[in-house]
Amino acid sequence: MAKITFDGIEIEIPDGTTIMNAARTVGGSIVPPAMCYYTPLKGSGGKCRACLVKVTAGSTKDPRPMPKLVPSCITSVQDGMVVENTVNQQVLDVRKGIVEMLLINHPLDCPVCDQAGECDLQNFAFEHGVSTTRYTEERRTFDKIDIGPLIQLHMTRCILCYRCVYTANQIAGDRVHGVLGRGDAAEIGTYIENIIDQDFSGNVIDVCPVGALTDKTWRFKQRVWFTKPVNAHRDCPKCSGNVLLWYKGKDVLRVTARKDEYGEVKEWICNECRFEKKETSDWTIEGPAHIDRSSVISANHYELPVLNHSVVADLPESTQRELEKNPPLKLGS
Ligand code: SF4
Ligand code: FES
């Protein structure tokens, strides 16, 4: 076991754990943001630099600070390590720069992007970025590539996190797409217009942190914050069949895998569940889903927010009377 100090909090974790996962054992706002690391995908991390932290003491044996900021998702802890994240101004300033760099080529087309509301880059920019840009050059553009009837690729939105490449490699089998070219010319593409049609290829949509890979069957149908996520399952011979159904009224507009608080897929789902089962009768409904990651989709669903009694006591009397008469919220203790 190694003892480390993270933002002043002492954590004891098994040797070999990454700094990121050590912080996740504490949770909350001290956890560094991640745009490319994805726990279920071997080899992910180390691409986006969103998770950089300052190591002010390397270990008990060698307590010198590490000279540069380190990516917390691929740096292992050592006994006696002292790490600073939210308490270090250099880290916060660099993070602003990372947002700026990621947005150099990413189009600001959130109003028409299907990922809006559940986009990691949108959340990252909101929490860590600045509201102005110094960039006046032309953004990169790409020839459109059709990667099949189910998945839409918008290469201009891609931040080259490689998550989809690892997913295609490790989950879908028969990988036919990957990163072509290098440096400024790097892009996600398929060779000789191969169509991505393996049973589990739809999972690339769930892992993509931005709107570069989206579900064609859900495209432009609805803003995600107007839909209601519901847990459901079916007896599927190919996958666990545990999914989220996204309802608008009585219609299931899309089906996705369930995700944890870090936006990581809990269980991969097959294309049949994702693209072909869009009727309520296809599913056993479990109930409203709790979305616990910080996003606009955490609001406006079927679950009632808990309003603390002490909060109610601070409201104007007329509002309190109105709440009592017509309680729109579940009152907590
Ligand atoms: S398409 Fe999405 S998942 Fe794939 S590398 Fe680009 S940003 Fe990452
Ligand atoms: S999340 Fe660590 S480098 Fe991308």
Automatic annotation (TrEMBL):
CDD domains: fer2
Pfam families: Fer2_4 (PF13510), Fer4_Nqo3 (PF22117), NADH-G_4Fe-4S_3 (PF10588)
Keywords on record: Iron, Iron-sulfur, Metal-binding
Every 4Fe-4S His(Cys)3-ligated-type domain range: 90-129
Occurrences of domain 2Fe-2S ferredoxin-type (ranges): 2-89
Keyword S-adenosyl-L-methionine: no
Name listed for the protein in its UniProt record: (2Fe-2S)-binding protein
Organism placement in taxonomy: Bacteria, Pseudomonadati, Bacteroidota, Cytophagia, Cytophagales
